[in-house]
Amino acid sequence: MAGKTRIALAGLARGAGASVVIMSDGDNDSIHAKLDEYQQRAAVAQSKAAQAYGRLLNLAENRGSGQIHRIVKFLAAIYNGQDYSFDLFELRAVDVEISDDMLCCLDALRWGRSDLHQLVPDGDMRIQAVIEQWGLRPTGI
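Predicted structure:
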């Protein structure tokens, strides 16, 4: 089978058997190019989010306006979405620069490369302190 590559896809759904897909070398190259693109996008998103998360965390630690409570709720939800909820409509109630940083964090979150609090110095300790300082309590899902 010249110019063809066999790729076995193990059960994608629970209980599904493996299936075999026949692809041309060009298709295989296209898939690898797409995966490389996704890796690059994920790396860029994580880099931007590390900076954005740091800025948001600094605001939460050092300011006290109404917007900051929304930032803290957002940071808590990014930290532990099962225990802390965040209404996405809150993005409308913060300054554009703040919502831009929040969106950067969400972009990195979807790629799932690392927990954002791990990308800033002492992130775990700092976010826990902010959550406690603002009196947030787990809400569950």
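Summary: The longest strand covers residues 4-9.
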